[in-house]
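so my prof wants the structure for this chain in the tokens format not the other one, which i didnt know existed until like an hour ago. anyway here's the sequence
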Amino acid sequence: MKKRKGSASFTLGKKPSENKEKNVIGKRLFNTFLIIFAAIVLGYGLITFCVQTVYMTGPSMEPTISNDDELILNKLSYKFGRIQRNDIVAIQKIGSDDYYDIKRVVGIPGDSISVVAGRLVINGKHTSDEMSYSYINSAGLLNETITLGDDEYFVLGDNTSNSEDSRYVNYGNVQKSEIKGKITYRISPKEKRGDMD
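here's what i got, hopefully its the right format
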């Protein structure tokens, strides 16, 4: 059959505007996926390498930190600085999975530590009476002088009457690799919110 003059041939298909709409929707979905993926990666990186929220469990750091206090753990603190005496730190003992202990560093590498008549003695000097750990009822391993080796730290809970810490054989000296960062800020309770010095 012959085509009439002036008649146009055509094929059935989608309108150009429909194709454009589908492309726009596809790009939006892809961009949304990229944003969500980037947020997940960034969040994971932040928690793994920078800062993390942790909670105090138990009374071992009272009166400085109480049970259920919400705290900020700064994991970068010791990437660029040194662990210092009196820092409050989060410790992850080898084999303890994701659980953190929160204690205070009282001894740093090279220190000699003991307890004499209930008083903590560091390098032959009694600690200040202002320190919450200045009087110790149970000396544990500190009945004898302990000298810390390289990368070894001695930690106590501020509530020395109710704290499992470096004084005891099952806890012992803490390795630098077990100290995961410094507790720098208290989020809650609200009335105690602020820097941890």
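also thought this was worth mentioning. Helices lie at 16-49, 77-80.
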